[in-house]
Amino acid sequence: MRFVAVACLLCVTSFTSAQLVFEPVQYQYGGQNPFYYGGSNPRVIARANQPACGDYGRVHGWAFVSGNDITHREVGTEPLRVYTDCVGRGFTNAAIYGYSVDDARNEAYQSVPLVFRMRDLLAHAQPVSDGTWVVPPTAPLNDGGGTIEIKPYVRPAHTPHPVLIIPKEMLDQPTPAPKKVALWDRPRTDKQAS
Contact at 8 Å (CB) between 39 and 84? Predict the structure, then answer.
């Protein structure tokens, strides 16, 4: 019995000592030349990770490098790239239409649940090789959210009626006499006397 108790204790402590990591909401992707996307389409992320013109001119971390015997040009950054599901199904750079990084962040935070149960989050946790469990930021939304069970109201066959009980001794008591209140009488003046 002692062996079983110790084994159960070790199992419980090993489960509770596992680290639980909640992933932050992500809307910035890419490395040196980041792009911003707040939606949930993985094809948009894969497309935006590819260079716009292939790998031509992309060496040593530069966005574009070209040169000849006389000149040498280096471009370190690309224009701002913001993608949204509202423009071109997510494949069009919406920054040219005025979308900003804040718009991508707002779109990303819009899909995060504000009210949830902890057991719903833990049910969607995924184990990682080092023993930690990772919870994605949109975990409860993966199964369509919560449910509400609606049942018809069935009236009981016998409904109790309220009963008013007045003790008989309370009815036989005399009504108390009104209390006398002393009034302050002001002294009369000559004008009031006449």
Answer: yes
Return the bridge partners of 73, or none.
Answer: 66
Beta 72-75 vs 82-83: how paired, if at all?
Answer: unpaired
Looking up tokens 């990770």 gives 49
Which pLDDT score, from 0 to 100, does residue 92 have?
A: 87
List all residues 6 or more positions away from 137 whose beta carbon is below 8 Å from its beta carbon: 22, 23, 24, 25, 26, 112
Q: What pTM was estimated for this model as a whole? A: 0.53
CB 100 within 8 A of CB 119: no
- Tokens representing 11? 């199992």
Q: Which residues pair with 54 in a beta bridge?
A: 52
Residue 113, classed as helix, strand or coil, is coil
Give the span between the Cα atoms of 100 and 94, in whole angstroms: 8
Listed in sequence order, the residues at least 6 apart from 98 whose beta carbon sits closer than 8 Å to its beta carbon are: none
Residue of 7, 48, 20 whose CA lies nearest to 136: 20
* Mean pLDDT in consecutive groups of 10 residues from the start of the chain, 194 residues: 63 59 86 83 85 65 77 79 85 89 91 75 83 78 61 76 79 77 66 57
User: Residue 139's CB: how many other CB atoms inside 10 A?
Assistant: 21
Map residue 133 onto helix, strand or coil: strand
